[in-house]
Amino acid sequence: MAVHKHKERQAPVNCMVITISDTRTDATDKSGRLMTELLETAGHNVMVKKIISDDKHVIQNEIEAGCKDPYVDVILTNGGTGIAYRDVTIETIKPMLSKEMNGFGEIFRMLSYQEDIGSSAVLSRAIAGVIEHTPIFATPGSSGAVKLAMNKLVIPELAHVINEAKKDIL
């Protein structure tokens, strides 16, 4: 089957957007706002938008709730992906994955390298995968990283990823 056939989806995707930060508030959450705006501009629905602390148990509980929510097709996080001691997003999400989409992080780092980030791209620990039937994308918290990931990787493949992840249950 042709790639464009795989990408077809009739309905908009219902999204959960989570900003993971110990310092951001509704007023200062530029990345969460940007992620929401880009999804809505692409015709998708943001059903849930939250800011949570960079704490393993809080992250895990929110992701589990999103996976159980019948109105959420995909979870998108931003923040907590760095190498600082307090950044635990990747350590929390990775063991939860049924399947990892290795190419997401690899291509994100390549694109970041090419877009003036240079060798600092090696610090990015962006990750994507599927938890049972719910896709999840975890991006760094900078608005530049969110814009890059959403425009170049997430939005172009979002419907395709949902269709593949939910293929056995639809």
Poorly predicted ranges: none
Which CATH C-level class is it?
Answer: Alpha Beta
Whole-angstrom Rg: 15 Å
Calculate the mean pLDDT score and round it.
Answer: 93
The domain tally reads: 1
- CA-based shape: globular
InterPro entries: MoaB (IPR012245), MoaB/Mog-like_dom_sf (IPR036425), MoaB/Mog_dom (IPR001453), MoCF_biosynth_CS (IPR008284)
Domain MoaB/Mog: 16-161
GO biological process, one term: Mo-molybdopterin cofactor biosynthetic process
Family: Belongs to the MoaB/Mog family.
What keyword list fits this structure?
6 helices, six-stranded mixed sheet, 19% strand, 170 residues, Molybdenum Cofactor Biosythetic Enzyme, Chain A, globular
Describe this structure in words.
With 170 residues, the protein is an alpha/beta fold. The chain has one domain (13-165): Molybdenum Cofactor Biosythetic Enzyme, Chain A. The chain has six helices and six strands, in the order αβαβαβαβαββα. α2 links the parallel β1 (14-20) and β2 (45-52). α5 (102-117) runs antiparallel to α6.
Topology summary:
Elements: H1 3-6, E1 14-20, H2 30-41, E2 45-52, H3 56-68, E3 74-78, H4 89-93, E4 99-100, H5 102-117, E5 127-131, E6 134-139, H6 143-165
Helix pairs in contact: 2-6, 5-6
Sum this structure up briefly.
With 170 residues, the chain is α/β, with parallel strands linked by helices. The chain is built from 6 helices and 6 strands.
